[in-house]
Amino acid sequence: MKKLSARRRHPLAALVVLLLALAATGGLYAAFAPADKAQADVAAQSLAIDEGKKLFAVGCSSCHGLNGQGSSAGPSLVGVGSASVDFQVGTGRMPAQQPGAQVPSKQNIYSQAEIDQLAAFVASLGPGPVTPTKEQYTSTNPDDISKGGELFRTNCAQCHNFAGQGGALTKGKYAPSLEGADAKHIYEAMQTGPQNMPSFPDTTMPEEQKKQIVAFVRHTNSDEPNPGGLTLGSLGPVTEGLFGWIFGLGTLIAVAIWVAAHTTKAKKS
User: How far is residue 81's CA from residue 125's CA, in Å, rounded to a whole number?
Assistant: First the structure.
């Protein structure tokens, strides 16, 4: 016991105990940590980047450069993030069919697996907005629809129309209709601000608010009956007034002509 007490008071005793504790902790971590899974994830990510680079070289490098540095025909993709790639390629806007004031959406030519590979490569060029998970853009709270409507009318209706039917902008540009838009793509558009649209990062618009806007747009574009009857594209008083003048006034004129014609015939007889 005296020898043990003497060793405890030795100046190096605390250091020895600390080393033993670190060794035990390291051994336990090595024994139980999912090293194989971590290595597999790293290998899968590296493979996705390599495959994405090959796809990029074939379909994107002519405009954006082999390393995404950009050129006179296309902007740099360094720092745009995987969300931008998933949106642009997933909606068919990229690769662009032809230059113009605005690149329209079209039929997508890549599979989702290929889009993920392209996104992985572009994301490796520099940090940027990350492709959202389903939980980020899927709402389960019924109150999100009304809250999203308020946010949409404040931040989006000026360009996209209060019902998301789109609208004209300057110099041949336009805000596209949101009818039939995928929930993930709506969320990514707010993340990245494609083309003429401003971006709404989490510092400007929190994730929960973006989810609420997605819920409102999806609800507006659903197949539920419209209590107001024929929507006329939900473009507002211009189309409604035009409908009233052409069909309403036209009907009145037609009825007036019919009455006048029959009155004339009645007098002659």
Answer: 8
Q: Where are the domains of the chain?
A: 39-97+104-125, 134-220
Quick one: which of 211, 187, 208 has its CA closest to 197? 187
Return the pLDDT at 40.
Answer: 78
What fold characterizes domain 134-220? Answer: Cytochrome Bc1 Complex; Chain D, domain 2 (1.10.760)
Q: Tell me if residue 35 falls in helix, strand or coil.
A: helix
CA 188/CA 137 separation, integer angstroms: 9
Residues of the chain with pLDDT below 70 are 1-38, 223-240, 265-269
Q: So what's the pLDDT on residue 4?
A: 47
Domains 39-97+104-125 and 134-220 share a fold: yes
- Topology (CATH) of 39-97+104-125: Cytochrome Bc1 Complex; Chain D, domain 2 (1.10.760)
Distance CA(57)–CA(66), nearest Å, equals: 6
The answer for residues whose C-beta is within 8 angstroms of residue 62's C-beta and 6 or more apart is 73
- The structure's pTM equals 0.73
